C-alpha cells in the first residue's frame, strides 16, 4: 500500500450502515432501502474486475416497478486488515493440495468481506443502456460533425446533471469536499468520485467540478479557460497531496471525451489504478489540454476527436445515418 496519510471511511458511509442500507433524501433522489430492490437481470459482469451491473426494480404499493441500476463490486484489500484474514477464526476450506501448491476458500467475517453497492434510483432507460454489455465502435468526430450531429443530440438528450449542481450548491456531498476554489469563473469543487470508497489509496479517484455551468466538454474550451484549467491542475494536485499524501507525479489527471455528464469536470485517479475510462480513446490529459490551448485558442474547435460509442446508442445511430461510420 502507498505510504502517507490514509483515507478514512466517511461519516455518511457509517450512517448508511446504521441505516441498514437506507438511502436518505439528501437534496436529491428518492429515499429507498436496498432490500426494497429486486433484481430483474444482469446487465454486465466482469470476473476480472469482480463487478456486476444489475437491472433492478423497486415495486411500489400499486404493484408497479420503478427501474434501478445496482452495481456490486468487491472492494480492494486493505493492507492493514490482511493479517486478520488469516488469523481470525473462519471457515477455510482446502480445495486442492498438490506438492507445494494448495488452494483454500475462505469465508471471512463481514468486516473483511465488504461489497460496495452503487445504486442509481430511479434509473432512466439511458442508465440501463449505459451499463448493458454491448459492442463498441470508435467514432472520429470532426468539428463539423460535432456542430451538425453531436451538439444537437446532446442538447436534445443527455444525462441529468442535477447531481453536479447539488454538489456545487452544497445540497449533497458537502461534507466530502476535499478542496474548493469559490471563484465563479475560475473556481471548482474537488470531491471523491462515486467510484471510490476512500478506504485505500490504490484506487484513489476524485473529481473536480467547475463552478461555471456553460462549459459542456473539451469541445467548448478555448484559451479563455486557461486560468480555470490551471487552477484545477495546480490546486487539485496540492489538495490531494495534502489530504491523501499522493504526489502529483502519481496522479492521472484527465478529461473524458465524450463525457457522460455535460458539465466540465476533471478526473484525478491514482496512476497505478486502471480506472474505467482512462484508456487512450477517451482520456485527454489536462496538462496536454492546457498546452494545446496555450498554443492555439481554437484547438478543440478545429481538430477531429475520437471516442467510443456503444452500438445501440442513439448518437451512434445519428453518425450511421450521416454515413460517418
Ligand atoms: N462524487 O453523484 C455523484 C456522481 N455521479 C452521478 C457520477 N459521478 C459522481 N461522483 C460523485 N457523485 O467518474 C462520477 C462518475 C464519473 C464522473 C463522470 O462522475 O463516477 P464522465 O462524465 O466522464 O462519465 O464522468 P463516465 O466516466 O462515463 O461515467 P461513469 O458513470 O463513471 O461510467 C464509466 C463506465 O465505467 C461505465 O460505463 C461502467 O462501464 C464503468 N465502470 C466500471 N466500474 C464501475 C463502477 N464501480 N461504478 C460505475 N461504473 C463503473
Automatic annotation (TrEMBL):
Q: Report what the protein is called.
A: m7GpppX diphosphatase
Assembly, in brief, is: Homodimer. Associates with components of the exosome multienzyme ribonuclease complex, such as EXOSC3 and EXOSC4. Interacts with NDOR1.
Q: According to its UniProt record, what is one Pfam family this protein matches? A: DcpS_C
UniProt subcellular location: Cytoplasm; Nucleus
In terms of one coarse class, where is the protein primarily found? cytoplasm
The organism's taxonomy opens as: Eukaryota, Metazoa, Chordata, Craniata, Vertebrata
* Residues the record marks as active site: 265 (nucleophile)
Q: Which organism is it from?
A: Cyanoderma ruficeps
What GO biological process terms does the UniProt entry carry, in alphabetical order? deadenylation-dependent decapping of nuclear-transcribed mRNA; mRNA processing; RNA splicing
Amino acid at each position: 500500500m502507498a505510504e502517507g496519510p490514509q483515507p478514512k471511511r466517511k461519516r455518511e458511509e457509517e450512517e448508511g450502515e446504521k441505516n441498514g442500507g437506507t438511502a436518505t433524501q439528501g437534496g436529491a433522489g428518492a429515499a429507498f432501502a436496498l432490500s426494497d430492490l429486486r433484481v430483474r437481470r444482469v446487465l454486465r459482469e466482469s470476473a476480472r474486475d469482480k463487478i456486476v451491473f444489475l437491472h433492478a426494480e423497486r415495486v411500489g404499493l400499486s404493484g408497479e416497478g420503478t427501474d434501478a441500476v445496482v452495481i456490486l463490486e468487491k472492494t480492494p484489500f486493505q493492507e492493514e486488515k490482511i493479517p486478520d484474514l488469516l488469523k481470525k477464526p473462519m471457515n477455510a476450506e482446502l480445495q486442492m493440495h498438490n506438492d507445494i501448491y494448495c488452494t483454500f476458500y475462505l469465508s471471512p467475517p463481514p468486516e473483511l468481506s465488504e461489497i460496495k453497492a452503487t445504486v442509481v434510483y430511479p434509473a432512466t432507460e439511458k442508465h440501463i443502456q449505459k451499463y448493458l454489455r454491448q459492442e463498441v465502435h470508435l467514432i472520429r468526430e470532426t468539428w463539423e460533425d460535432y456542430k451538425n450531429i453531436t451538439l444537437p443530440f446532446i442538447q436534445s438528450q443527455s444525462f441529468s446533471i442535477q447531481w453536479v449542481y447539488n454538489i456545487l450548491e452544497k445540497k449533497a456531498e458537502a461534507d466530502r469536499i476535499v478542496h474548493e476554489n469559490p471563484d465563479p469563473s475560475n473556481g471548482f469543487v474537488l470531491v471523491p468520485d462515486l467510484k471510490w470508497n476512500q478506504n485505500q489509496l490504490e484506487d484513489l479517484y476524485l473529481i473536480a467540478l467547475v463552478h461555471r455551468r456553460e462549459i459542456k466538454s473539451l469541445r467548448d474550451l478555448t484559451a479563455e479557460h486557461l486560468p480555470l484549467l490551471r487552477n484545477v491542475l495546480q490546486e487539485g494536485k496540492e489538495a490531494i497531496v495534502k489530504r491523501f499524501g499522493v504526489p502529483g507525479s502519481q496522479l492521472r489527471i484527465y478529461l473524458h471525451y465524450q463525457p457522460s455528464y455535460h458539465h466540465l469536470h476533471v478526473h484525478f485517479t491514482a496512476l497505478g489504478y486502471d480506472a474505467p475510462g482512462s484508456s487512450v480513446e477517451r482520456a485527454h490529459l489536462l496538462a496536454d489540454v492546457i498546452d494545446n490551448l496555450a498554443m492555439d485558442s481554437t484547438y478543440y474547435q478545429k481538430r477531429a476527436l475520437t471516442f467510443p460509442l456503444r452500438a445501440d446508442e442513439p448518437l451512434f445511430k445519428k453518425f450511421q445515418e450521416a454515413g460517418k461510420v
